[in-house]
Amino acid sequence: MTTPFLHVQNNQTNQTYENNPTGRTDFNDQLDRGERFDLKEQSDPNQPLVRSDPSGQGVYHAKIWPGLKIYRKERHILLEAPGPMESIGSAIYGGGMSSVERYANIYVDRFYRCDDPVQDIRNLLVGWGYPEQGTAGLLTAVQLKHAAVVEEQGPDFGVLCCATAGVSNAARAGVQRTTFPASWTPGTINILLVVDGRMTPAAMVNAVITATEAKAAALGDLGVRDAENGLTATGTTTDAVMLGVSQRAEWPLLHAYAGTATDLGGAIGRLVYDAVRESLAAAGGAPK
């Protein structure tokens, strides 16, 4: 039995379930109501959720932004937008604040020698034919088949989250624990967020905060512990997050906030929470 590389979480809001106890709702109706839509229910149950292109590589077509695609390549997951995105995040290559069109989440084994990860990523991108400009690269030791993708469409935005998650080096922030001089190792929880909408720079920072809080909530609810002190983990020692925003003029609302009290922040939190939990469950990394 072949396991699809993308495990798509398909929980729906209580409102959706109450309005339609079968759990099957029309995508356009959900779009009009600003509800979360069930990706799995929109596909033919007799067909794999992630189909293959002629080259044999999986491709996922996002609903929230036509043209946004996620590809499963031999050694990386490529998230490619149909246009430039304003981006902020902690990717070792192309991180910070920049304009990007694609994110590459690249698999390396846990024995990877990280003497010069920036150059290693650059070499890989060149070998794969991706332009160095407009591309952000992350490294992960999590098997890519355990990636999770979730989407949610709101009235003034669309959000997609793709996460790869492992907790072998789970850690709790805010306590005394073993630390090391500045160095770099492959990301254990890598979160790729895309917002089709308009956001201020401050709201983008706010969104990263919300995503981090949601990741910590997922680990806490799963009972993930920092092995060094036994306390509830808030992340791992090597996490990374990237947020890309379309800033398309078609969206009339400019979001100035993305905290948990906002519609946008609420969606971001739910999707990150679900994606982290789903990826850990797929990898068998969540505590029983």
UniProtKB/TrEMBL annotation:
<dbReference type="InterPro" id="IPR002808">
    <property type="entry name" value="AdoCbi_amidolase"/>
</dbReference>
<feature type="region of interest" description="Disordered">
    <location>
        <begin position="1"/>
        <end position="29"/>
    </location>
</feature>
<dbReference type="InterPro" id="IPR052209">
    <property type="entry name" value="CbiZ"/>
</dbReference>
<feature type="compositionally biased region" description="Low complexity">
    <location>
        <begin position="9"/>
        <end position="22"/>
    </location>
</feature>
<protein>
    <recommendedName>
        <fullName>Adenosylcobinamide amidohydrolase</fullName>
    </recommendedName>
</protein>
<dbReference type="Pfam" id="PF01955">
    <property type="entry name" value="CbiZ"/>
</dbReference>
